[in-house]
Amino acid sequence: MTTARIILALLVFILTGCRAHMATIRLVNTSAEPISTIIVDYPSATFGKDQLAPGETFSSPVKITDTGPLRVQFADAKGGNHHYILPLLHPNQEGFIEISLNQNSATAVTHLNAR
Fold this sequence. Notes:
This protein is mainly β. The chain is 14% helix and 56% strand.
């Protein structure tokens, strides 16, 4: 019985130490008009959002597996396209990134740490 308990304890210890390093990218429309066709490109992957209403927030969990810039593109309410290169990301960073979008710009505030 003692051997079984030791094996079980080791298994629990190993499994609790294994987890994915995840970050959350949060998009916030800070303007008074909708923003559409939002594409967020980060190292090794991409996600999109059709539209963000004024004041709306959208979050997506991501796993950063390579080094590279965070990029965002979107269309403003008049149909103008905007492309921005934001901070450099590194593998296994955890935390969150808030990208504030308005009709003329995109800015990112990062709260990331390497694990």
